[in-house]
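Retro notes, item 3 of 5
We never archived the inputs for the nicotinamide-adenine-dinucleotide complex last cycle. Fixing that now. Sequence and ligand:
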Amino acid sequence: MTQRITILGSTGSIGQSTLDVMARHPERYEVFALTAATQVELMLKQCASFRPRFAVMASEAHGRQLAERVQAEGLAVEVLWGAQAIEAVSAHPEVDAVMAAIVGAAGLAPCLAAARAGKRLMLANKEALVVGAEVFLQAVREGGAVLLPIDSEHSAIFQSLPDDASTWDRRVRKIILTASGGPFRTRDPQTLREVTPEQACAHPNWSMGRKISVDSATMMNKALEVIEARYLFGLAPRRIEVVIHPQSIVHSMVQYHDTSVVAQLGVPDMRAPIAYGLAWPERIDSGAAHLDFTSLPAMTFEPPDPARFPGLQLAWDALEGPAGTAAVLNAANEVAVQAFLDRRIRFDQIHHVNLETLAAVLPQQPATLDELLLLDARAREVAERAAQRLQA
Ligand code: NAD
Ligand code: MG
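Structure as it came back at the time:
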């Protein structure tokens, strides 16, 4: 039996890599629905190659454009648009698995829809979990969904942990997330105020979307991953550590009480964790190259410098703060990164926007999706004003 898959964010970096892996296994997987925000031409190409039942664009304008193009090409794909349609193809009864690869908090609602419908949910969209962990995990439990991490670090940890999750807390001493350190790991911190979006997006090891690339340069990506790990694996925040490993070969590690460390290694290629999520517990060809140990560069490890990466500590601060603090941090950071990409604020000012927003927005225990979205919107307003003040 082939599995029917919905890909949320199919035109993005993770979405395209997911289609690449699926195309290697047509006997196992078929595309049920593809969703995207703005890239109509790429979506049309994906429709022609993968023949999904549904193609969904986020806005009506892009949806109508796609519908016209699909009709002109004579493709038998039903085109829909809007947030509700994205949720509908996530929760559709004929869907077996959902790849959540939208960037940002915008992915939370469709993730929840898939979780409530009990899907196998492959989670790349870490912001969704950061924003709404309690609500999200409750939906997973109540819907009977299977949550599989796609983030390479979390896939590595999942692969390094015992199958029985009820033993993790007892057996594990620490989770150690590796980080590449991004493009500015050795740059003089005094010059970080001058870096351009192009420089920040030029990651040394991974090719990714622009938002996560900037997050890798500030290490806010690792901060979000610390929060993600805390909720995925249920360990206290002080048992999660970050170490810089510039070669990105060791994708993360679990240290046990007896001092043993179990790690997962591989070339830096997101198709490997995507293939693991698609096939788990099976192992299938991902298209990534195999590691050749005899030609590897020397592997090195170093502590992250808090002066260079001041945002990293915000992960533990947010986890100790009142419920909803991580949602405020995420919203602030999404706004700040966009302002940097639009050349409205400097790279080093991203952290200032985050700090100002955290200080100004006090969350009131958000307990539902609506309350989370309200908090997210409030934090965005405050962050936007902070960015505008810096710009002025
Ligand atoms: P990307 O920017 O390349 O792609 C984002 C996708 O989401 C696109 O298809 C876009 O159309 C869609 N999208 C954006 N805003 C939307 C909205 N408001 N409504 C509906 N769809 C929307 O991003 P990416 O690099 O593929 O990252 C996707 C997610 O995966 C992020 O959460 C990121 O942190 C995570 N992730 C990515 C990588 C990577 O290697 N790229 C690795 C680990 C985790
Ligand atoms: Mg990662």
